[in-house]
Amino acid sequence: MWNIDSSWTLFLDRDGVINQRIMDDYVKTIEEFIFLDEVPEAIVHFSKIFGRIVVVTNQQGIGKGLMTESNLSAVHTYMIQEIEKLGGRIDAVYFAPQLAKENSVMRKPGSGMALKAKSEFPEIDFSKSIMVGDSDSDIEFGKRLGMITVKISPNKMDDSNADLYVEQLNQLAKSL
Fold first, then answer.
1. 15 included as an active-site residue
2. Which residues in 97-167 belong to E strands, given as ranges?
């Protein structure tokens, strides 16, 4: 669809894209982390196409004192290991523990996590990147950096300005 090859980077939001979102709460433990349908398989597929796969996730549950960075690290280690068991990969996970009211550049839609990724992986070219998210802030994050944006949304009449809408991540995998 976009002539994607190994020079491209896939940025993924976490909650609502990779795993089930917990409404009005946060995924604080491995037990609460539940992959959405066919997501591990989709990431395995993406691993064969994209040069880099990066997760960028706002995690203000840390800033609120509801979990620790250690709790979050355990969840992310589990997520990565489960995908690796199937032959896929996630190259890096970046998270923003700041509270929304802090207006930190690290929190999406701020570009801090993407700039950190580029500093660690200089080959990342935002014009050859796709951002997949389920919120308007995810789409704004991608747009600010010149990425192609894909919104996970059951509502095709969604009013954000994403380049593409899919109901689930596996639909994107099947189209690439």
1. yes
2. 129-133, 148-152, 164-166
